[in-house]
What does this fold into?
Amino acid sequence: MREEVIIAGYGGQGILFMGSVLANSAMVEGLEVTFFPSYGAEMRGGTANGGVVISNKKIGSPIVTRPSSLIIMNELSMKRFYPMLKKKGTVIVNSSLVKEIPKSKEVKIIKIPATQFAEVLGNEKVANMIALGAYIKETGIFSLDSAIKSLHSLLIADKKVLVDINEKALKLGASDEY
Amino acid sequence: MIRIMHKILIKGNHAVVEGGIQAGCMAYYGYPITPQNEITAYMAKRMGEEGRVFIQSESEIAAINMVFGSSLTGARTMTSSSSPGISLKQEGISYMAGCELPGVIVNVQRGGPGLGNISGAQGDYFQSTRGGGHGDYRTIVLAPYSVQEMFDFTIKAFDLADKYRIPVILHTDGYLGQMYEPVLVKELKSDRKTKKDWILDGCKDRKPRMIRSLLMDEGELEEHNWKLNKLYDKIKMKEASCQTCFTEDAVVAIVSYGTSARICESAVNILRGKGIKACLIRPTTLWPFPEKTISTIAKKVKNFLVVEMSLGQMVEDVKLAVNGMSRVHFYGSPGGGIPETKVVVKKVKEIIK
Amino acid sequence: MMDKNKIYRPESLTDVQNIYCSGCGHGIIHRLVAEIIDELEIREKTIAVAPVGCAVFAYFYWNFDVTEAAHGRPPAVATGIKRILPDRVVFTYQGDGDLAAIGTAEIIHAANRGENITVVFVNNAVYGMTGGQMAPTTLIKQKTTTSPRGRNPRYSGFPIKISEALAALDGTTYIERVSVHNVKNVINAKRALKKAFKIQIEGKGFSMVEFLAMCPVGWAMSSEDSVKWIEEKMIPEYPLGVIKDA
It folds into this structure.
C-alpha cells in the first residue's frame, strides 16, 4: 500500500495543521509516513501545500509527484495540482471556494462545502478538518478514531480549547450529511 | 510536540534539537537563516526549559566563536545554519580544528552558490569534507537521510566530537530539515561524561593552561599538523561507515547519501522489481569516506552510478575509491532540485544496456 | 608583606621575558592586569581571551588560563566561556584593529547584551604586529604604511571613538579611557581597570577600559617622542576619563 496525498490551499487555511493530523494519524496506526510541507518566502496569503506519503513499507522519496489523492481548499490549488493526479485518484474539493471543478470519469471527485460547513460550526478555520474528515471517509486509509487521537495529542496547552470544534468538524466531514 | 508513547511526529529540524538536548548540549548559538530556522527557534524554547544557554548571536561568525568559547570550558555545544551561514562559520571551524576543540555544526543545506535559493541541496559536500576553512584539517561529517537519523546522528555527532576532540558537521539539507516523520525517541548510549583534562576553567589546583592555534616556533606547527594527521588516520580507520543493500549479486551500484539516497532507495526497489540487479551504497559518514567498502564492491560490480543534488562532488570520492576498477557514472540535480526516482531508474537501465 | 620599594613580579605574571618593543605600552598593561588579578585574588578563576595582534602571545606572559581568539572575535569567545562558567572572571584583551575594525560587530553586541565580562582595549592608533598600517583609531594626518600621505578622512574616515559609541548602549555598565604614557596615568589606569574587574565580580555587567598606549615602532618615533605624542596628539582626540558609570 502506498498513498500519496497533496493538500493545498492558501496560507491561513491550516494546511500545515491538516498535514500534521494526517501524518500523525497514519503514525498512530503504525504506518510509515512522511509529510513534506512546502516552505516559501511568503508567510500569509501565499499558497500553502504539502505532500504526505503513507505506506506499510519503508518510504523512499518523500516528494509527491504523482498523487493518488488531493485535498484542495482553494481555486488556485485546483488548477495547479489537478493535472498531477493519478488515474483513478480521489479529489476532495472545498466546493465553497472552488467553483471550477472539472468533470472526469477517470477520477473520483468529492465536493464538500467545507468553508460553509465550518461557518455553521462557528469557526471558518476548521474547514480543513471537514475536508480531512471527508478524505478519511472516502479513502479509509486510517480510522476517524486515529485522527481524533491525533487532535488530542497535537492541540495541547493553550490550544487544548480547540480540540472540541476540530473534532466536531472531522466528524461532520466524515458523516453522510452532505 | 506530539508524544504518542515513545514515537513522536516531528520535523527534521526539531529532531536535531531533541537529539542535542538528549546528548547534553549545554549551549546553543545561532542566527536566523532558512531552511534551518526551526532549529534556532525550537532551541530557544527547549534550552530555556532545560536551564541551558541559548543566544541568538549577531552573526554566524559570532555564533561559531561562542561555540569555541563554550567548548573550551568542556561543555557540549552546537550551532546550526544553512549554506551561506556555514560559509561564514568556516573561520571559526578552522580555529576549532587547530585548537582541537569539539563541537557540533549543523548545516541544513540550501541551493547555491551565493544566496541561491531556500530549497534543499547538496552543494556543500566539498566544503564539509575538505575542511571548509583555511589550513590543513578535516572535520567528521555525518549524513543523515531520515528524521530519525537527524535525531540519532546529532547525538552521535556530540559523542564523536568529544571522543576525538574535533568539530563534527551534521551535513543535512532543507528537505530533511522541513520533513515530518515519526521518530523513536530512544535513550542512546551517549558518552556524555568524557573526561576532559585540557579545558580552561580557572587554574585552581593545577598549572595554567592555554588553548591556541598559533604555533610559531621552528617546526612546532609541522609537528602539530602531523599529530592531527595521526588523529585523522585513526578516525579514518574506525569511523568510516555506510549502509548497503542488495550488494551480493549486484551488477550496478548506486552511491548516494542524504535526501538523494531516499530517492535512490526507491529506485533500487523498482529496479529489483523489474529483475534488474541494482544495489545501494549510502555513506553515512562523508568524512571519513567509506572508501574501503566501495573499493571492495568495485572489485565485482563494474558500473557505478553516483546520484547527488549537486553538479557532482561526492562522485570524485567515489572515483578515488573505485580507482579505475569500474566505470563511474553521474546523475545530479543542482540548484535545489530533487532527483526523480524514474530518472534514476532510467539512468540505470541505460548504463546496463 | 611586599616591600613597596622593591620591584616584584606578580604571581599572575610568568617569568618569561616579553618580546614587546622598547617603549611599547603592552608590557605595562599586562602587568597592571596581573597586579589587579593578584590583588583581587582571582588568579585561579580567571580565563583570559588573547587577541590577534601584538598581544597574541599574552598566554606566555600571564600565569592563568588563557585562550586565543580569531581576529576580532574575543567578545564572542568570552561570551561562550562566561555563559557556561558565570562564576569565573573572564576578560578579553584587544587592540584597536581587533576591537574597532574587524571585531566591531562582536564588541557592540557583547556590550549590548550586557555580557558580564571585562574588556581591556588597547588603543595605539596603529596596527602594530603587521607593520604599522592605518587603524580605525589612526589620527587624521597620521602617516602609516597604508596612509603614506597621512590619514585623509575624505577617503579613510575618522578616528573611531568606540568607547563613546559603546557607552551609548543600554547594555554597558562601566567604560573609562585611560593612558599609560606616564606614572601618574599608569596609577590612574590601574584604579580604572581594578574597578572594571570589580564590576564583573559583583555581577554588574559589561565593563571596558580603553588604554591609550605607545607604539614607538609603529609610529616611527623614539620612546620619548611617543610619550609626548600621546600627550599632545592622542589625548586631545581621545579625552581621558570616565565615559560611563551606570
About this structure: The beta strands of chain C are 46-50, 65-68, 89-95, 118-123, 126-127, 133-134, 172-179, 206-212, 241-245. Chains C and A do not touch (no CB pair under 8 Å). Chain C has one domain: 26-245.
